[in-house]
Design goal:
Layout lengths: L1 H24 L4 H21 L5 H9 L12 H22 L4 H26 L7 H22 L4 H25 L19
Helix pairs in contact: 1-2, 1-4, 2-4, 2-6, 4-5, 4-7, 5-6, 5-7
Length: 205
Amino acid sequence: MRFLRNHWFDIGFIAAIIIGVFLLISNVSGIQLLLCINLIALFLHQFEEYRFPGYFPEMLNSVMFSSTQPDRFPLNSNSALIVNLTTGWLFYSLAAIFAGNAIWLGIATMMVSSGNFIGHTFIFNIKGRTLYNPGMLTSVILFLPISVCFFYLVIRSGSATPLVWIAGIILGIVLNYIGVLKLVEWFKNRNTSYVFSRRHFKSDD
């Protein structure tokens, strides 16, 4: 478990390469292709946040929560693992696998991707008075265009009924709020032993 907690984002990066190769030799297309690419984008996004440059934990805790313990509060290495593997890996993978049979899942995950774009591009930079933060690059060059293409394709094809749109939007809100914000809140602990290593700090790069 300790290895997974320290290297889940590295595993995701390897998974992104494997899925990318699979897509090159397969005949996946349309909405499913976009959802598979969105999953790859998620892995690369997490790699940018936690490995290179990797100081997202410090930025989030210090800038967004004014934490005096940015190495563990409120986000810690355990809650980061839980949030990213459940709200991220699980739902993005399910959306890619079921694709056309569960458009509502795709809509929900694209809302999470769009939320990441808004958060990294505007909220984090404005509050932190910065021009860049870990996760912003992949949000701009991957999440934004993928989301736009997905919603355009779904609307143009008419493959989502009003009920599907409602279900997808509601789940998207739930994932953004409960699957991210509330999970961090529920697992916060000033005395936790799940501390981020020094490489997650910009000042120690």
